[in-house]
Write a structure and sequence with these properties.
Strand 6 (74-78) and strand 7 form a beta hairpin. The protein is 4% helix and 47% strand. It contains one helix and 39 strands. The chain is mainly β. The strands form eleven sheets. The protein has a five-stranded mixed β-sheet, with no helix packed on it. The protein has one helix spanning 2-21; strands spanning 25-30, 34-39, 44-50, 55-60, 66-70, 74-78, 85-90, 99-104, 110-114, 119-123, 130-135, 140-147, 150-155, 159-163, 172-176, 185-189, 200-205, 208-212, 219-222, 232-236, 253-258, 263-265, 278-280, 292-294, 301-309, 316-325, 335-338, 343-346, 353-356, 364-367, 371-379, 382-393, 405-406, 425-433, 439-443, 453-454, 457-458, 462-472, 475-488.
């Protein structure tokens, strides 16, 4: 097992060394069939050999093997030592069409496009079988490339297209490449281990080379002295099918906590990560290498902490978001009420779920009888329970009475409806509802009672529901809530 691990590490180091050594190198296929290696940093070229047929495009897979699409619409394997080819099989474009664009993803999938139809394909490199993935909506000019995991295509009229592999119909242009002539090739060149800087995309047309900006597809000429003896058809590099290596800061984490939590250690929350990074607090202040956050004194809200490792293009940051939530509800203390009074508990909190002792799950709860009442509150950060004991007694003086019926007919007897009390109200809100829940009367004045009219017309005979919210001047700390029914007799 030990030898196996060492072997794997050695292979990885060799691959990284090879990729770094070839960081600025790419390959181009020419109209005359030549396969040429170019160095975009040194602006030099080296002819490898001539393929059996000119290749419209070439691509290098994750294993370092090159493939090409020939002018005969056949898929070939190409030897990078001398450009000799091995036929894999024929491709089957639509009538009058040609495959001219090719690239590999870092997972080893070969993608292809054609110069007449506007479809994206997946190609099986063992037998050249093709699978149609969807309509990009743009004709390929001659190449595909992966940049930072995103697929791009050089399209007709020098447009650079960002291809949506999952839904090709949603592909869209980045912009138009302002080159001197037609662009046939696009290729990604650069280091995968960040030592040589971030990879760059290059466009090739005729025998000219341009650096491409992914912001708007604008280009600038590079390597003006690059000498190629024929027109460029396609381009490829090992970087296209290789994910760029970056530092690993771990995963982003969102944690919901109750405000009664005292301390929490941040490092385990991001999981596996590279060491030698730096932790930062909400104010971007550097923390210790293994910070423990005291949140006991923090107010409810969201607080973000960051772990950053690496520099420049290699840097990676993981974010830990701690959301502190209040768990304990605003619950009344044990109390004694007068007969006929009601205690209304309102715990409205959209982030909480409630379960009362009688199975009710509402945020509001009315108490009109003695007993012990409890509610279980559940939130994402935890669970708690609150209890109140309510007693009733016969009180002297400040009672509220309502008649069971009244006859609003203008005869001067029993024409008005409202509460009767010997005490003075400090707050008063009376509402009367019909059987459809419509408010037919409301008053905030104890002297303004209901005369049985709604919109200037007497209401029909029947039963109506009333609700009174009030407080007495003698006991302003104790709110009252009365509900009941009254019969209108006509």
């Amino acid at each position: 097992m030990r030898n196996t691990v060492c072997t794997h590490i050695t292979i990885l180091l060799l691959l990284l060394t090879a990729h770094y050594a070839e960081a600025q190198q790419a390959y181009v296929s020419l109209q005359n069939g030549d396969l040429v290696e170019i160095d975009v940093e040194q602006c030099t070229s080296r002819r490898i050999g001539r393929t059996s047929v000119p290749m419209y495009d070439i691509a290098i897979g994750p294993g370092g093997v090159m493939y090409g699409i020939g002018q005969d619409n056949r898929l070939y394997k190409i030897d990078l030592k001398d450009a000799t080819t091995t036929l894999i099989g024929p491709l089957k474009p639509k009538q009058g069409d040609d495959f001219n664009s090719l690239v590999f993803s870092d997972s080893g999938i070969m993608y292809a496009a054609t110069n007449q139809s506007t479809f994206l394909y997946k190609i099986d490199t063992t037998n050249a079988n093709q699978t149609e993935l969807g309509n990009i909506g743009y004709q390929a000019a001659g190449d595909l490339t992966f940049f930072d995991g995103v697929l791009y295509m050089a399209a007709r009229n020098n447009f650079l297209i960002r291809v949506n592999i999952a839904n090709p119909e949603k592909s869209a242009p980045v912009g138009k490449m302002n080159a001197a002539g037609a662009i046939f090739g696009v290729v990604t060149v650069g280091s995968i281990d960040c030592k040589g800087g971030r990879p760059k995309m290059y466009a090739l047309g005729g025998n000219l080379l341009y650096e491409v900006s992914l912001a708007d597809a604008s280009t600038k000429r590079v390597c003006p002295n690059l000498r190629l003896n024929s027109t460029i058809y396609g381009a490829a590099s090992a970087v296209e099918a290789t994910p760029q290596l970056r530092a690993n800061a771990g995963r982003d984490t969102l944690l919901n906590l109750c405000e009664n939590t005292n301390q929490i250690r941040l490092a385990p929350l991001v999981g596996l990560k590279d060491s030698a990074g730096t932790w930062y607090g909400p104010e971007q202040l550097a923390l210790t290498s293994d910070p423990i956050v005291d949140i006991s004194g923090l107010s409810p809200g969201t607080y973000r902490y960051f772990y950053t490792v690496g520099e420049g293009n290699c840097a990676d940051t993981a974010t830990v978001s701690l959301t502190l939530d209040r768990l304990e509800p605003d619950f009344p203390k044990d109390t004694t009420l007068c007969q006929g009074q009601m205690l209304l508990i309102n715990l409205e909190d959209s982030a909480a779920k409630y379960l009362w002792q009688d199975g009710a799950t509402t945020a509001t709860y009315s108490i009109s009888k003695p007993g012990t009442f409890s509610v279980e509150v559940t939130k994402s950060c935890g669970q708690t329970e609150a209890t109140v004991e309510v007693n009733y007694e016969t009180c002297d003086g400040c009672n509220v009475f309502f008649p069971d019926a009244f006859s609003p007919n203008g005869d001067g007897q029993n024409d008005l409806f409202g509460p009767i009390s010997d005490c003075q109200f400090s707050t008063f809100s009376l509402r009367v509802y019909n059987r459809w829940g419509e408010v037919v009367f409301q008053s905030n004045d104890p002297k303004q009672l209901w005369d049985g009219r709604f919109r200037s017309q007497y209401v029909s005979s029947g039963t109506y529901v009333y609700r009174l919210n009030y407080q007495f001047l003698t006991d302003p700390a104790l709110p009252g809530d009365r509900m009941g029914k009254v019969v209108v007799i006509r």
